[in-house]
Amino acid sequence: MGLPEAMGREAILALHAKKARLAAEVDLRLIARRTAGLSGAFLENVINEAALLAARRAADSISAADIDEAVDRATIGGKRSLRLSDALKKRIAAHEVGHVLANLLNENPEVRVPVNKVTIIPHGSGALGFAESGSEEGDKYLYTRAELEARLDTALGGLVAEKIFYGEWSTGPGSDLESATRVARAMVQQLGMTDLGLAQTMPNQYGQSAFGSEADAKALVEVNKLLKASMDRVEKRLRDNAHKHQAMIDALMEKETLSADEIDAIAHPKK
Question: Structure pTM?
Answer without folding.
Answer: 0.82
